[in-house]
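Record 1 of the preview.
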Amino acid sequence: MKKIGLITLLSLSAAAADYAQEIEARQDNFQYLDATVDLLDDAFDKEVLDWNEIMPLAQSAHLTVEEQKTLFPEGSADNSRARTKIWAQKAEFEGKFDTLSQQFILISEAAVEQDDVAARAALDKAFAQCRSCHMNYRSLW
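->
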């Protein structure tokens, strides 16, 4: 009986370790996204907007969000700040990523048109989406 328990424990331990790469990648992506959004925010604080600076930042943020959506496989909550609620509400969680990604696309499109109002509105919605996701799906420890 002890052998079965030990084998089960080792199997569970190995399964948790299988997600270490995804957990590290999603944490790195979140840090990168945070830094990119900070740069976007700084770009919008300038008196004259540099659309050539804004567009690649928005595109990079969009691609990071799209990649991030792939880094939450079932069972990867262990040893991470992610709440298990993510997997219980997977469709809603992924919808928040879709909304965030769309806001960065809207910023890129606004940059092409040099539409300050539309770009700022999309950035505000992106910030709101980040806050919403953190409140719902991130552990605070």
